[in-house]
What we know:
By secondary structure, this protein is of the alpha+beta class. About 25% of the residues lie in helices and about 30% in strands.
Amino acid sequence: MESGKAKVLVILLVIIIIGAGGILGYKIIKDRENTESATDVQMADSSSKKTVQIFKGNDRPIAVMIDNHSDAWPQAGLQDAYMVYEIIVEGGETRLMALFKGANVEKIGPVRSARHYFIDYAMENDAIYTHFGQSPQAQSDLKKFNINDINGIAEDGTTFWRVKDKASPHNAVTSTEKLLASAKNKKYNTTSTDKSVLNYTTDEVNLEEGQEAISVTIPHSDRQIVKYVYDETNKTYKRYARNKQQVDWTTGNAITTKNIIITFCDNYTLSDSENKGRQGLKNIGTFDGYYITNGKAIKIKCIKNARNEKTIYQDLNGNVINVNDGNTFVNICPINSKVVLEGLEETNS
Length: 349
């Protein structure tokens, strides 16, 4: 009798063990399925996220001073730059500073001499500063701020070369490959983890509340008047200067930009022994400006607290603006510059 009870107990115990094992196995399988499902969702979410293309990787930016005299046109490399700064220099001319990051550009130029206030914008981008000669003020500031610079006049003759289809001094050119070789030879850091000055986003910025800006005219001076005209098909602006469309020296294609930033701040004539009319720039403080993209413009504040600090671009509510993933021209012009923004109806009238 007791033997029979023992057998029943054993059978019940086996049934319980098998049942418990089945439940445990089912739980393990479901947990694995849930984990795999969650991983698949994460991978799908990850793959659906876009990565900013205009400013990526750890390559250190390289800033190059570009001649903007009419005898220097067309220029090479501007379309490959992620940012281009345009600021007044002597004689009512402007000069450009093009910034390259991780780009392979075979011809950049014509390269011209440094002006001290451009150094501010090289510093805020953590860029290696490239120029062909310098003003006395720039020479002093290059030392003062311990700038990693590449000066064409001091190079060995391989980093820069002269071309025959332009006359001196508008014919010195270089390349990113040559500049990187020079930077490495000088033991400069060629990588950087600094964040971009601009808050780029892959979500399209359309400035719905902005005013129309199909045509943008920026008088830097009586001599240098810049105009941007919106191309709705490509959602970029074509650049003009002195009523002439700007094209690339190498390709002949139109120079275009996705974004335009305008900053109003005063320039003034320096009093120095050379008496060449060189300029200074009052660029420390808070200044009015515009952000322009996709045919619209909004008013912004441009805040620069120190020469070696990044400029902060805010909307009028104090929020840092989002900028479309694409190249940007930053036009720094006099406070009294009569910038004109026109809509579609105005441009067609």
